[in-house]
Specification:
One of its GO terms (molecular function) is nucleotide binding. The chain contains 16 helices and 10 strands. It is an alpha/beta fold and 507 residues long. The C terminus is likely disordered.
Length: 507
């Protein structure tokens, strides 16, 4: 009798599992259709956003709507790519598990795998709910965009060369359109009656290499700004040295632009490296009120310190690194180039892992994205992911923070573990990143970051590498100085068990 009941229960269990699996795969087909529908909606939203970006929109409400629409597009693409990546990773795990189970006709892990499949199906139910929610949200947004599209078409179009998508993003400022319009509106705002002697000051605050200089350069290239000011003068890093004495500030400025046909007022742009006290700021204002070029009516002051907010006559503009959804859209466009990520789901999954390791760094985005685009191959990308993960994890264990933050907080100096190349070179090296202006472009290193990754260069004890050249103003080049060191024992983390494949990638 016990044998009979056991057989009946076994048959019922087998039928239940078969029913659940069949239902799962039927619903999975519906998921793929919904993903395709989501992709079509995102393409429609992307077309609207790109059309709006190509026009001179001055209405603040329209700009706010555009910002909301853009953010929704980035969130949608991040959701879509992340969803597809999870499917790819789940299929890869299933193939490994199925292969291991096939090695034996009787395997005690089968029961565990059935329970894993059950949990996986429960998880898929919640994911499908998220997919339906995102799909419905985008459908409602698209249906409400008709008036927005009509209004957008009434604004004049900006002149722009026809680039493919990744060249377009590489040759324009990405993700700062709303901030750009806010700075321009500040500059074009007229003084109140009787306030001619007052100098309006806008502080721009943000961490290093977040895009403050790039934002200001694009503002200064805007035709509306150039028509408004007779002179645009830039006071760079050397202007606030000499023990903080700013008495000779007007004589050290670099004239960025002259317009003899505009009114007699000028714009001063000040970039600070160190913090500044009230007394120094008073000296700056006193110097700029003089008639050395043209009376200064507006000042933009940039710094990493929040203390300059006290010097502003208007609310400071805070810049931060891009949100992960926006960063991912930018990163995948640079990395894939003209290749579609939809056609390469395995590459997209690897690329998303690399983007997470880059940690929203603008320099890292362009350096790593360009290296990936140079060799669109799953084997190369996976090997690059392993090396980057090894280096990042090791750095976090030793120093307690991401390499981007160490580089920012330590004057550009950090450490990097060199991978073995065909010359057998490996070891610990100091790494210092600095930027060179467009004036010194003739003295750039001949070795590029892709040369180091391809392992074709035999590094010396000390050498420089051209990490990245920006193709947009202010056209900075970023150079890394390496110095290979003998590995000090104090720099090494506690010994842990690692897989042989991973240990061989880096030393």
């Amino acid at each position: 009798m016990d044998t009979f009941f056991s057989a009946v229960l076994g048959d019922l269990l087998s039928r239940s599992i078969s029913f659940m699996v069949d239902s799962y795969y039927q619903k999975h087909q519906g998921v793929e259709e919904n993903l395709q529908c989501l992709h079509r909606l995102l393409l429609r939203i992307q077309a609207i956003v790109e059309e709006a970006d190509s026009r001179h929109i001055t209405n603040q409400a329209m700009l706010l709507q555009l910002r909301m629409l853009s953010n929704m597009m980035y969130r949608g693409y991040y959701f879509l790519d992340n969803f597809r990546c999870r499917i790819v990773q789940a299929h890869a795990q299933d193939e490994v598990r199925d292969h291991s189970l096939a090695l034996s006709s009787f395997n005690p892990l089968k029961q565990f795998c059935f329970s894993t499949t059950t949990r996986k199906m429960v998880s898929e139910v919640s994911e499908r709910k998220e997919l339906h929610k995102m799909l419905g949200h985008l459908e409602s947004i698209v249906s409400d965009m008709q008036e927005f599209v009509v209004f957008v078409s009434s604004y004049p179009r900006m002149s722009r060369q026809p680039y493919c998508s990744y060249l377009l993003l590489e040759n324009c400022m990405f993700g700062r359109q709303e901030e750009q319009e806010r700075v321009i509106n500040f500059l074009l705002a007229r003084h109140p009656p009787g306030g001619e002697e007052v100098i309006d000051v806008l502080p721009i605050i943000g961490p290093g290499r977040v895009g403050k200089s790039t934002l200001v350069e694009h503002v200064c290239h805007d035709e509306r700004v150039r028509k408004y000011f007779s002179t645009i003068v830039f006071y760079g890093l050397g202007s606030n040295e000499n023990n903080g004495d700013m008495a000779f500030l007007p004589d050290t400025g670099a004239v960025k632009y002259r317009n003899p046909f505009s009114g007699k007022q000028s714009l001063a742009i000040i970039e600070l490296v160190d913090e500044m006290d009230d007394e120094t700021w008073k000296k700056i204002l006193h110097s700029l009120r003089g008639d050395h070029i043209a009376p200064v009516s507006k000042i933009i002051i940039m710094s990493r310190s929040n203390k300059i907010e006290l010097f502003g006559t208007t609310k400071a503009l805070q810049l931060d690194f891009l949100p992960k959804e926006v960063f991912w859209y930018f990163f995948k466009t640079i990395a894939f180039g003209s290749t579609s990520p939809v056609e390469e789901p395995k590459l997209a999954s690897i690329c998303m892992d690399i983007a997470a390791l880059v940690n929203r760094s603008f320099i890292g985005l362009n350096v790593h994205g360009s290296i990936l685009r140079s060799n669109i191959c799953a084997q190369f990308w996976y090997s690059y992911l392993k090396r980057l993960k090894y280096y990042t994890d090791k750095h976090v264990r030793l120093f307690g923070e991401h390499p981007r933050d160490t580089n920012k907080n330590n004057g550009g100096l950090t450490y990097v573990w060199m991978h073995k190349n065909k010359h057998g070179c490996s070891g610990l090296a100091t790494y210092k990143l600095y930027q060179a202006s467009s004036i010194s472009q003739n003295n750039l290193p001949t070795i590029r970051s892709i040369d180091m990754v391809s392992r074709n260069v035999k590094p010396r004890a000390k050498y420089e590498v051209l990490e990245w050249q920006s193709s947009i103003p202010p056209y900075y080049s970023y150079i890394a100085q390496y110095e290979i060191l003998a590995q000090p024992k104090l720099m090494l983390p506690p010994k842990r068990k690692r897989s042989g494949a991973l240990s061989e990638e880096l030393v």
